[in-house]
Design brief:
Blueprint (H helix, E strand, L loop, with lengths): L8 H12 L4 E5 L6 H14 L3 H8 L6 E4 L8 H14 L8 E5 L11 H11 L5 E7 L7 H4 L3 E4 L5 H10 L4 H10 L4 H8 L1 H10 L1 H4 L4 H39 L4 H29 L1
Parallel strand pairs: 1-4, 1-5, 2-3, 3-4
Amino acid sequence: MFSGVVGQDRAIDALRRAAARPSHAYLLVGPPGSGIEEAARSFAALLVGAGDERAQGLVARGLHPDVVEFEPAAQSYSVKDDVRERILPEAARAPVEADRKVLLLFEAEKLRGAKNEAANAMLKTLEEPPPRTVVVLVTAAPDDLLPTIQSRCQLVAFEPVSDDTLRDVLVREGIDESRALLAAGLSGGQLARARALAGPLGELRAAFASVPARVDGTGARAIALAEEVDAAVEAAAAAVASRHAEELAEFDAEMERHGYSDRDAQRLRRRIDERHKRELRRARIDLLLEG
């Protein structure tokens, strides 16, 4: 576990120690792309499947029935739709396979919506969770969380990954050093973005960057360039959709192989479908922002 997390030795050590004697709630704080998301999943894998390679693989792919990921469906977590109808019932539901259940709440700062209703609705679960449930909040903006939320969690801090560390990782993965250095410098301390900039995202940036020099003032050229850029974005997004299709095929095979009931399989599949929709939407936004 934690093999995809670089430059975060102190945080990883803290999570490994915590997994041996887990508390009821944790607050992971750090910038996006620092490895914090991967570390949260690795921590969850230790909690539900220490020594179980199959369970750890399921968590890594977002397929384990006892590790449930949440993100806000809108600008903030809704007290009704997100907290009361999704998060709290899942926290109370018994584990399916493991001895405990883990809830991962990404963008946890968005619990602080209108009048802090969503955050307040979470307080009792954080203070007195079901005995076999661990809640892990992940945020880049801890100051946006209520102090009462923070005080109920064990804090684990992550730092931005240095350019030198990112460059070294990319070079070990076969990227030319000059290209690796450029990608690391543009990545904002994010390993996933550095990898993308050294690969397919770099090609997309080049497509965007070439547009100004090719504009000739005619409407026809403007339309053609817009279509070209749109096609580049769609091609990059298609790779995400293809990965999602592979995950669903793996999930269906896993459910059949281990004899899950249709009801449980459908519930878990809906959960994955929701995550895929969020990931694809976020990927499209990120791709456009690269331009």
